Each structure stands twice: as structure tokens, then as C-alpha cells.
Amino acid sequence: MEFAAGILKKETLELPQILEVKESDREILVEGTVHSIRNMGEIAFVILRKRDGLLQAVWEEGKTDLSICHLKEGDCVRVSGTIHEEERAPHGKELRLSKVEILSSPAAPLPLAIDKWKLNTSLETKLNLRPISLRNIKERARFKIQEGVCRAFREFLYSQGFTEVHTPKIGSKGAEGGSSLFKFSYFHKPAILEQSPQFYKQIMVGVFDRVFETGPVFRAEKHNTRRHLNEYTSLDLEMGYIDSFMDICAMETGFLRYTMELLKKEYAKELKILGIRLPGTDKILCVRFTEAKELVSEKYRRKIKNPFDLEPEEEELIGRYFKEEYDSDFVFVTHYPSKKRPFYAMDDPEDERFTLSFDLLFKGLEVTTGGQRIHDYNMLTGKLERRGMSREGMEQYLDTFKYGMPPHGGLGIGLERLTMQLLGEDNVREACLFPRDMNRLEP
Amino acid sequence: MEFAAGILKKETLELPQILEVKESDREILVEGTVHSIRNMGEIAFVILRKRDGLLQAVWEEGKTDLSICHLKEGDCVRVSGTIHEEERAPHGKELRLSKVEILSSPAAPLPLAIDKWKLNTSLETKLNLRPISLRNIKERARFKIQEGVCRAFREFLYSQGFTEVHTPKIGSKGAEGGSSLFKFSYFHKPAILEQSPQFYKQIMVGVFDRVFETGPVFRAEKHNTRRHLNEYTSLDLEMGYIDSFMDICAMETGFLRYTMELLKKEYAKELKILGIRLPGTDKILCVRFTEAKELVSEKYRRKIKNPFDLEPEEEELIGRYFKEEYDSDFVFVTHYPSKKRPFYAMDDPEDERFTLSFDLLFKGLEVTTGGQRIHDYNMLTGKLERRGMSREGMEQYLDTFKYGMPPHGGLGIGLERLTMQLLGEDNVREACLFPRDMNRLEP
């Protein structure tokens, strides 16, 4: 019998180790995928794609053991050679090849020139060929940035006393209700896919006080816009013992700051590849919904059509206003109208037509919805009744309040939307590995 | 307009800060939920539940501003008082109350005595009253341990060059296929809930080389056992450029070691509350499937009924065998029969009836399935054809291999099962916040 005793030490070197190797006769072993080949006759430049970036390898007639005509783009190889300084190579180093072993070979030529710096193709084609288009260096860098955001969310919240939870995605009733739910049969019982972990994270405030979850949510909305996905990753937090919804805004500001620091520290390479300038997050202005509407109506001479809702165009103008007037990419729009918020939102005791809630706009796009929730059982069931809603399927949620809950609130952040705005992309699908929309169920 | 400028400093103290306060006349401010009240007449012990544990507060007639009869279990309060040394109190300190402010009050008495050390009730009742039963100190501690496992998985894999991915849970075809899929209508197209991120994580190996995901998976299996859930959290990894499936076993061993270290360091309190002795993870034995069957058949005089499958009882006996013979809680069972593994599993070139795959058993229960995958396009499509399977809905997955993939493999760990075995529980529902099984869709 064999033992598995911790990670096997690999003989092959990864990029950070390779870049530390000094020019010498020492042979090193490297694995990677052939990203591109430029054959000049007696020598050929073979660019290897590794998880940390590209490495220039040089094939030389008579010095490398494999004939260059046996090597092709898409091959996965294990090679050995020596490291040499070379100004014109990426990272200033190249690997002169002595041996090339082909580990696996593609069965067909690549359908996209993924070695181009920028993929010269439509979003539609990129998405249709997603497994291949993501192999482009810029395309994949986006998802390292996305990783950084999600990682920052968790790391920051651990440091603030939050507990991570995993709540079910199959449920019997949605938090916001109605037409935007995917429905299916669960062992002959009617079931839905959760559009938010809202009920569960509130329930868990009664247990752990501060909780978060990073997971998929599902919305059957018949929107086919550049901002909507029918499945996305939601970064959710919920916290007890708040004094006001400003505690939630402050926690989000703290998260955003932490994110920018983590990206600068750990994702500098990807920021550079993508040419991203990180937004300022020192302090974020809060403006009331009604005031925001008036400000943009005045400055941009736009008539207010509906005083109780924000149109996408208005969101963009609010973003523009705060960029122009305060040089700020972010703004919290607070006190949304009650009729536009779910029943569990806490109404403003000073004016019950509005709620103690907010959206965060980032460059004119809503990336977060949050606010204070009702914690009193009678207030909650009273509001439910005034809205003519049934308690059916919500008994357990409501009982949580019957047995006592602290004042609390929370928020949900759309990971893809936040990533999209950081990247400066204009379609949320650019920030989703495998988007699901009304027309797209594959790959 | 207001600014949100990072986390608001709270005046109230959390438990770690409180325990650092020396006995003095300094008044401190604390928030929490009234976990229990023991009223002795002139004084009353009011145990406050906070996210980090319990705090003994003492109400005294004439010294505390609120009458004790106005306080009840389940109240959320903000109190002030002074800290005093008290041997008999949890942590050796108590808070003598001067002021009590009730932030919120339950509408009904608690249906369970959650302040008991061990909830004296059936699993069924605990699950029915989950929002409340989780408020018990021991119940909630389990999910801190679960947090630790999931956190360790991510932290360890970041350190090993893995990239986190978020893959869709709505798909058009499952990795293992067939009857164990939940089906539904996605904008009038037939869709399924993914039973594994298998196809996507393999696709992403072509992009990032090493990837992981922590997310929900869905299985419509008609099992109603102590080991099955119809929705669970899967910890998945997939890695390229492996030499053999032993690279995967080694990575899992590394993860398990890291987990035990993290639990000891950051979750010592919960380990103590639950009386958990962590298992040894220095090295883990690997035994071939066929050999494992023979060993237990011989030692426990049990006839081998089916040479190509492991029954749950056999798994338990293998666990027992390796505990008795090697004092090991873990064992990798390797080289599972090909007919029991999905088409993408790499067959053993030395004997094609078996695969280069494994399960990890932890105290006799399968907690992981993994192995090397086929990376060659022709080998993969050939095996598909020999099994008489259709390519429909898998075109994109298969094309990934057509355009080149490195040798690779990976694994999936059931978070709830791993937690259950760490906790020494005998039902996986004890390690799931809100279990979904054939009969349970709520809460």
C-alpha cells in the first residue's frame, strides 16, 4: 500500500520560480500550453501559457531535440532548457529549449486566435466559444479580478466577526415573490429556485448575529439587457444590533476599501494587463432618493416622470452627477420609496412612504441593494397584511421574529456587476464565466 | 449629504474585548440576546448570548434600572454595567448591570429550551424549528466548524496556485446524466440543476490550470438515508499537469492537514464546546478497491456479493479495518471499477476494467470522489460511443478537448459529510443548516 503524505513536490517550475532563476547552464523543467509559435526557420519563438502568465521559449535547429514541425499551438508540453536574459521577451527572460515532450495534442486547430492581445471578435462569438476564448490572457485576467473581489468580501467579513453560511437554493417560496421565480417539481411538491438568500440570512442573524454568504441566485426576469443575468453570484451580508442602515453602508465602504487594497497587493499583474485604474473609496456620499432625482433633473434638464422609481437612465445620470460634482465613482442613494421595496424593508418612521434602505451606484449602475429590515413580529406581519400578502410558505421565516430578533439589516452585491464596473465593461456578460440569459443556456 | 467612511466604531464591546476589561468602576456597554434568566429574588443571573459566546450578567434589586419582571428570554438588549471577577461565571467574569435597554422583544415564549447545554429533542423537531434550535450554543458551534473547513479549503488552494471559479447551476445536461437530475423549464427550454460542476471545472483547467469552486449541487436521488441530501455544498477542485491521480490524493491530504491546523488555531472554542478530537492527517493510506474488499471480507468473514461495487456496510467495515489495523480515520480507496465511474474517468492502462480514480473514506463514510480524467479528445469520444451515449448537450464540453487539454484530474468533497464525520454525528442533516431531502423543503 502507498501513502498520500501531503503535496507532492513537483520538479517542474512555475513562473514566479522561473523568474528568479539566474542565467546559467542549469537546466530547468517547465510545463505549459503552446500559446503561439513564430517560426523563423532556424529558430522559433514558442510562447508557453502558464497559469501565472506567458513564458517565451526558444526552439533552435540542432539544439532542441524535437523538430519544430511536430509542435503546434494548443499542445501541452513538458520542456527543459536554460534561462537567459532577453530584454525583448516578456519578463525579460527566455527559456532556450533542449528537450520538448508533448503531453497532449489538440485534435483540431483553434477556432479563435486566442494569442492576440485583444480578441478581435463579437461578444456573441466569445460566449459561444467560451471554453476557448477564456484562454486569451486578457479574457482570463478579468476572472482573477473577480476572484479578488469575492476573496476580499470573505476576508474582510471574517475580520469583522461574520460567520459564513450555506443556505438552500431550493425553496418553497421566494423572498420577493411572484413572477421572477423559476419553478419546478421537487419530488412532486412545487418548489422554486431562490432569488436571494434573504429569508435565510435574516434567520441566521438570530443565530450568529453577523453572517455572510457568497452563492448563486436565480431570477426568471424577462429582461434581456446589458445589465441583467438570470443566474448570478450574490455577495450577501446581514448584521444584527445596528443603530441605523448607515452601519450597513459603512460596512460596505469598508469592504470596498479592503477590496482595492487586496487587488493592488495581490492582483497587480491583472490590473496592469487590463489597464484598470481603481476607483477611490475613502468616503462615499449618501444622497436621498428624492434629492438625487431632483439634482439630475435640474442639472441635466430632464423631467421627472415617475417620482417613485429610478429609471436606468436616471441611475446613469446620478452617477455622472457625482463624478462631475464630487469626482466620485460611488454614491449611496438612500430612502427608496416603500412601494418599490419588499415588505420586510423598514419604513422610515419620519415618512412612511420611504424606507431606511439604499442602493449603491458604481459609475451609474446599481451594484448593491440593502437596508434596515423590520425586526418586530407585529410590525412585520402587519405590513404583510396591509400589502394583502399571504403568510403561506413563510411561517418559519415569520416565526423567527415571533421568538425575538435584534434590529438588523444587510445587503446583496451582484458580483458580476461589481466586476463589470471595475473592468469598465459595458455588458455584464463580460464579467461572467458562463452567462445565463433568456437566450443562453450553453455552454 | 452624509458620508459613509468605513466601518463605524461601535461603543458597545464584543466578548473578546469584554474579557480583557479589568475589574473596575468603568461602565461598559454591551449588546446581546437574553439567553436565560435565573431569578433568585434580590438578584438575577441574566445570561447574554453574543456571537462569540455567553456572558453572565447580574441584575440586582435597586442597582439595575429596569425591573426584572420586564425582562424575558429572547429579548435583545443593550446594557451597561461594570466587570467583576467571578470564578463561577463562564470565562470567570460577570457584568453587574446598571442600565438595561430593551431593543426588541419576542411576541411569544420560545418553543424550545435552547439554553440547555444539549437540546433534549429529536432531530425532526430540531429541523422543524431550525431558526430557533440553531440558537443553542452547541448547535451553532457545528456550523463554525463547517465554516472553518470551507475557509481552509479556499485558503489552502489559494496558496497552491488555484483560481476560484463560479460556474452556472442551471444547465442543459448533467455530468453524470440521467435520473438524478432536477428538471425544469428555462424560458420554455428544458433545463436541469447541475449535479456537479464537473464539466465546467474541467473546461476551466484549460484556462487557469488549477481551479476550485465551493457551491451548491443538486441531486434528485430517491435516497432517504442518514448519508444523503438532495442539495449539498460541494468543495470541488480540478488541476492540470498531473503525473497521476496520486497528485490529487496528495493535494487532498494537504488540504486536510491545513484544515486541522486552522481549526486548532481559529476554532479552538468550538472544538471544546463540541468535545471534538481532530483526526490524524499526517499520511493517509491508499488501498486498491479490490484489495480493500478482500481485506474486510477476510477479517470480518463477509462474503463478497458484488465485486464491482461497495455497499455502505462494506465502506463502514473498510473504515473499521483501517482504524483497527493502522489507527487511521482516513483511507483512500483507489482504482474503482470502470463501469461504476462516469465516462470521463481515465481507465487504468494496465487493466481497463478499473479506473485511475479514488474515494476518500473518513471513519467509514465516503466524503470525496476524485481521480484522473481523460484529456485526449479521441479517447473521450471513443469511450462515449462505446457506452452508447449521445453527444447532445455536451458539444461545448467535448470541443474543449478537441482544442487541447493537459493531463488533469480533480475531486469533489461533500462539505456536510466531511463536517458530519468531524463532529462524530450519525446523520448528515446535523451538519446542514437547512437540509433538503425527499420529505423536507422547509424551512
From TrEMBL, chains A, B:
Top-level taxon of origin: Bacteria
Positions with a binding annotation for ATP: R219, A220, E221, R227, H228, L229, E366, G414, L415, E416, R417
Catalytic activity: tRNA(Asx) + L-aspartate + ATP = L-aspartyl-tRNA(Asx) + AMP + diphosphate
UniProt-recorded Gene Ontology molecular function terms: aspartate-tRNA ligase activity; aspartate-tRNA(Asn) ligase activity; ATP binding; catalytic activity, acting on a protein; RNA binding; transferase activity
A Gene Ontology biological process term: aspartyl-tRNA aminoacylation
Keywords: Aminoacyl-tRNA synthetase, ATP-binding, Cytoplasm, Ligase, Nucleotide-binding, Protein biosynthesis
Renumbered residue ranges of the record's region Aspartate: 198-201
Predominant location: cytoplasm
All residue ranges annotated as the Aminoacyl-transfer RNA synthetases class-II family profile domain in the record: 143-443
Binding site for L-aspartate: E176, R219, T369, R373
Compartment list: Cytoplasm
InterPro entries associated with the record: Aa-tRNA-synt_II, aa-tRNA-synth_II, aa-tRNA-synth_II/BPL/LPL, Asp-tRNA_synthase_2, Asp/Asn-tRNA-synth_IIb, NA-bd_OB-fold, NA-bd_OB_tRNA
Stretches of the chain forming a coiled coil according to its record: none
Record EC number: 6.1.1.23
Site residues (Important for tRNA non-discrimination), renumbered to this chain: P90
GO cellular component: aminoacyl-tRNA synthetase multienzyme complex; cytosol
NCBIfam families xrefs: aspS_nondisc, PRK05159.1
Family (UniProt): Belongs to the class-II aminoacyl-tRNA synthetase family. Type 2 subfamily.
Main function: Aspartyl-tRNA synthetase with relaxed tRNA specificity since it is able to aspartylate not only its cognate tRNA(Asp) but also tRNA(Asn). Reaction proceeds in two steps: L-aspartate is first activated by ATP to form Asp-AMP and then transferred to the acceptor end of tRNA(Asp/Asn).
Record note on quaternary structure: Homodimer.
Protein name (database record): Aspartate--tRNA(Asp/Asn) ligase
The organism of origin for this protein: Blautia pseudococcoides
Lineage: Bacteria, Bacillati, Bacillota, Clostridia, Lachnospirales
